[in-house]
Each structure stands twice: as structure tokens, then as C-alpha cells.
Design a protein that fits this description.
This protein is α/β, with parallel strands linked by helices. It has helices at 13-53, 58-61, 65-73, 116-133, 185-203, 214-217, 243-248, 250-265; strands at 94-99, 137-141, 155-162, 175-178, 231-238. It has two domains: 25-70; 94-265, 3-Layer(aba) Sandwich (Aminopeptidase), CATH 3.40.630. The termini are far apart.
């Protein structure tokens, strides 16, 4: 046998190790490049968000959903301090007084030219002064005042007077009606009761509740004001038989209205006045 044929083949261990080393190095390079790409990508995203949110940046001129959402998210939450007063939409010391027919029409007119609107306005103005002297804020409103829309106050009272026509000798006295559509009917009922009690006592006039009309119970302002505002309408007397006290003692009349409102606001006890006998309806 030839000796060259019997010589064993050369070993391949060394080339195999080199190949594996190169594969490991390639894997490491790929992992490094992946991590580097991930870091760069995250950095670009953060830079974009920061630019979108930064005040004065492009987002101020061209807002995007991302910028808007981030800006909202970054707004500080309101801080509520323990014991801080709860905000309210209603001024607890605000009173509204409507001078019936004022800046709209004359109301009832007597043969000698006396106008209901003038009597109403005088009484309302005097009542306003009395309540202001007690520390309240009082707004004098006209018949269809724009402020009446969603009006919120501690109380609203509309002042009117009855016809100057002579009906009979029983057509004397006052009457009160309240808002029917209200969020707090018990408070509105109390305002009405206070007006009846205090006005009857101050004026000396009888309660003439039997002549309350739909114009009073469905008074337009009741449907305009905020449902949380207690409201009543009072007709302080008849311009015929009660003319003397209405025109010559308006301070006394206004005192009764003001005391009725204060009775309600101060939660004073109530003693209802005695009602006058019903007024017969004249036959044609």
C-alpha cells in the first residue's frame, strides 16, 4: 500500500470555531443596531410630543388631536380647600321687586287719570328702600324686564293693584298668589303666607282671596324666572275703595310688602289674616 494513501485527512476543528465566532459577532451587531433604532425612535416620538405641547410652538397655530389631548391632560386639577364655601348661583341677599306695568302700559286707569302703574311704582320704590335699609340688595324690575329670564334671587315679588271701577262695597282689600311651577313649592307657599300675614297687619285691609284671577296664578314672570326662585304677586288694594291708603299712605303699604318679604327671609312665625267676605258678581 502507498504511504500517501494511508495518511489521515487534515483536521477541520479550527475553521469551525472561526465560523461560529463570526456568527456570534454578527448577532451582537444586529442586537446593538435594534436597540439603537429603538432608542432613536422613542426619542423622535418624545421630541414630537414635546414640540406639539410646548406653548408658542407650531401646535398653537396648527393644533392637532395629540397636542390638544396632551394640553388637556397637563392642566392642573382644581384644588378644593376643606371648609371652603360651596359656590352658589343664587345671591341669598338679592330680592327682586317688579313694579307692575312699569315701562309697558298704564294698567288700570281711573276716571280722573290716576294710573295703576304710577301707584305700583311708588309702592315698589318705597319697599325697595326699606329692604335696602335692612341690608339687602334689591333690584327694581319693570313688567317685562329682560333680567326676569332665569332670574335667581332669594325672593321675587310683583306689585299690582286692582281695578278703579266700582263693583260694590265689598270690593276692598288685597290678594296674593304664588308661582305654581316651582322647584320648591313649600318655600313659595311660605312667601305667599308671609305676605298675606304681614301686609294685612300693616295695611289694615282685609284679604280678598276670592277674587284671585288666572292673570295672577299664571302671571307671566312665574314662567320666566329660574324655578328655584320663590315668587309671588300681590295686589295691594282696589284703586276705588282703597284709593286713600294707596295714594296717601304709600309708606304704610310699602311697609307691609317689605315686612312680608322679611318674614319669609327670616323664617318668622306667621299668623294669617281674616279673609273678607266674597264679592258678589254684579248681574247684568
Amino acid at each position: 500500500m502507498d504511504s500517501s494513501e494511508s495518511t489521515p485527512p487534515a483536521t477541520t476543528a479550527e475553521p469551525t470555531k472561526s465560523k461560529r465566532r463570526r456568527e456570534v459577532q454578527a448577532t451582537h451587531r444586529q442586537g446593538f443596531l435594534f436597540q439603537l433604532g429603538l432608542v432613536v425612535g422613542v426619542a423622535l416620538i418624545l421630541a414630537t410630543l414635546f414640540t406639539a405641547w410646548t406653548p408658542g410652538g407650531p401646535a398653537d397655530e396648527f393644533p392637532t388631536p395629540v397636542a390638544t389631548g396632551l394640553a388637556v391632560a397637563m392642566q392642573p386639577s382644581p384644588t378644593f380647600l376643606p371648609g371652603a364655601p360651596t359656590p352658589t348661583l343664587r345671591n341669598p341677599r338679592l330680592i327682586g321687586i317688579v313694579a307692575g306695568h312699569w315701562k309697558n302700559d298704564s294698567g288700570s286707569v281711573c276716571p280722573d287719570g290716576l294710573k295703576e302703574v304710577d301707584v305700583n311704582l311708588q309702592i315698589a320704590t318705597l319697599a325697595q328702600k326699606l329692604l335696602v335699609s335692612e341690608g339687602y340688595e334689591v333690584e327694581l324690575l319693570h313688567e317685562f324686564d329682560p333680567k326676569l329670564t332665569d332670574y335667581q334671587a332669594a325672593a321675587l315679588v310683583s306689585i299690582h293693584n286692582d281695578s278703579c271701577d266700582f263693583v260694590n262695597n265689598e270690593a276692598t282689600g288685597f290678594k296674593v298668589a304664588s308661582a305654581m311651577a316651582t322647584r320648591h313649592p313649600e318655600r313659595t307657599a311660605r312667601l305667599t303666607s308671609c305676605l298675606r300675614a304681614r301686609y294685612g297687619s300693616a295695611s289694615g285691609l282685609p284679604l280678598h282671596s276670592t277674587s284671585v284671577t288666572p292673570d295672577m296664578t299664571s302671571y307671566h314672570a312665574f314662567g320666566e324666572i329660574n324655578e328655584s326662585t320663590p315668587a309671588s304677586i300681590i295686589e295691594t288694594g282696589f284703586l276705588n275703595l282703597d284709593r286713600q291708603i294707596l295714594t296717601e299712605q304709600p309708606e304704610r303699604v310699602a311697609q307691609g310688602v317689605a315686612e312680608g318679604i322679611l318674614c319669609f327671609l327670616r323664617n318668622e312665625p306667621i299668623a294669617e289674616p281674616t279673609a273678607a267676605p266674597p264679592t258678589p258678581i254684579p248681574t247684568p
